[in-house]
User: Fold this.
Amino acid sequence: MDKGKLKFILLGLLLLISLTSFTAASSNILNVGGPWSPKTTDPHIDGYSYQRLGIIDTLVDVDQDAALIPGLATNWQVSGDQLTWTFTLRDGVVFHDKTPFTAAAMKKSLEDSLVKSKTFANVPIKEIKAPSDNILEIVLSTPFSGLPAFMAKGESGALSPDCIDQGDITRPIGTGPFIFESFTPKEEIRTVKNPNYWGKVPSVDGVVYTSIPDAVTRSMMLQSGEIDISLINPPEVTEKFQSMAGFTVKDQPIHRVRIMAYNCEEGPFTDKLVRQAINYAIDRQALVTYVMEGVGSPAASTFPPEFFWANKDLQPFPYNPDQAKSLLTQAGWTDSNNDGILDKNGEKFSITLLTYPERAELPPMAEVIQDQLKKVGIEVEIVVVDVDSSNARRNKGDFDIYLLGRGLLFTPDPDEVMMTDYHSSGTSGDGWCAYRWSNPEVDELIEKARGIIDPSARKSLYDRVQEIVVDEAPVSYLNYYVNQDIYSDRVKGYRMHPTELSYHLEEVSLS
Amino acid sequence: MSSTVYIPISDQGFCALGMRVLKKRPLLVFGLIILILMCLMAVFAPYIAPHDPYEQSLENRFLPPSTEYPLGTDQFGRCVLSRAIYGSQPSLIIAVVSTILVVIIGLLVGLCAGYYRRVDGLLMRITDIMLAFPSMVVTLALVGIMGPGVPSIILALALPGWAKYARVVRSSTMSIKNRGFVESARALGAKNRYILFRHILPNVLAPVMEIATLGLGSKIIMIAGLGFLGLGIQVPTPEWGNILNQGLPLLYKAPLIALSAGALIMAFVLATNLIGSEIRDLMDPMSDSVKI
Assistant:
């Protein structure tokens, strides 16, 4: 090697070392790193990031047990005909731009959201009225019990009237504990604290949320002090931090389930028998024990058992490859040429499993599933592409199995997930569960449940839906989530929310 | 490249040349030995590897090295050594095939441009366009469009790679075509094609060989890079890049997974770089070590 090259390499190394030694100066700014990045600055199109970061508030809040509690509304009730919901609004709340928060402002904000957001597609809102400064009435066309829960969603967040007049919102102005400062797509969101917040005023001066899709990079940034909290970590990362001084790993069971959704429109999974066979071919306990290092539990249905709406009679499928094989034989799949892979009418049972790396445990889980399916004679090709590309592929129907982590309580009411994931209007469109499966009885039950206020009467309908879905198997439930966040000892008072609706950063202080 | 000496190959005799190289050029021999061992490893992988590289046994995960598993097992209980050995197959096949492709395209374009003045301008402008693109970006874009897979990776590596060869071959061709032995062949009535392939081609091969060996090493790195980004060979097929990618989060827990693939990549690139730079020394008339 000649000297010039050597010098160049040494210079490069020096540069690298000096770069890595730059760590964030210890200020009172909280640095949070997570895998996601919002696609827009308009919370009425996509509100989850702005809600989690505390830029916007909603009428209704959700407590640690997923029950509804007062937010910007201090109480709410429904009229006798179940068509008018009346919300009493909190007094003395102002937007970040000093405009007072009134029923008229909230009406304007909600009407904007109804136009922009897909969230309300299935909510039968007829009219929104503001009879006085602190009374908001939402009039429905048909009774809908899930309405208050929808008022807890980010997309229904209160935005100032000036902000809505912008049209395409580039600077969300809410009422939350943090004020929006800047947004760089795929990079970061910056906020500063709102000293006039109606609730607990944040102790930190501001928050920088950085989008870091790769979990290992995130963990290294946490270790070097560039970020203070690393959200959503796979077990191989948390394991390292468990024993490391200066960091805390926090476990929180969340309302989220890992599932395999089948393409019921074309390919081998149009056959119900084949989908049922896969349920027996998957060793769910092995996935939890070996891929998740024991964090989480095998899933039986869409809702985890600690959640009120779960059908507790359902049990996770046992691992029974022989049963899987006999179901596959029944469906006409046999290994006629003895190559170890099943075939039917001369076609090999060769399928594509699509997943994304932002949830770092999914690709390794895919590999174990691939191996388990190979044992019953199914050849699986794994395709791992980033979450946006994989969603695009799924919407096009370019997959056989889609492995994903499905959030269940972004709206703290089962209706939303039931409508998007199991009602034919949801499964036929684009979305996390676009598997083009439908069942008339399920549709009817879900529609009926929407008009029932009494929770236990409603639950019996949802129990039946869960039963049908498990039997029809448009999806296989794999395991329930336990989220693992890691934070440095600088951070005090951080808690996670089981519904993932908030990071509660106003409660965090830095030492 | 302009200082390269052109010795008609037929004057020397390959065997005699080979023997002298062995004695006087230990680094070249060292590089060649590594390269040959690597190729043998790829070809005879099924006979050398102690286990099936695809065989998962989840209860045997993260085993430390033992006689059963010389480098231990990975997160799925697969043999790390077997995967590293099998990992050489896609890497070597893609590197060799794509290098042969770029050499062929580069030679054809370079010879034509250097020999026939009429097409020179056009061909060289196309070459300039290819050189203007950063090759990794072009490769990433091509793999992104065509999707991961052996043929698309080979194409994606070959398409941006040939321009460099075309440049070198062109300048060599231009200087050789006016030399005495070419002129005399022409005087004896040889056709253009005969002159190109019998007189010029053998003499431009030497510099091409040099950049091709160096290129082989950089291709291995590019393939591993693609595998690392998830755009290369897809799991569970072992390939050095994707082994490295999977091993990285586990570096703390099972360092041998990433290190096994990393060490093999390093050894291969070291070998090609040694051979390449030795060939360059041999070709350089200004170097003291030209006499072998």
Remarks:
- DSSP finds 16 helices and 21 strands in chain A.
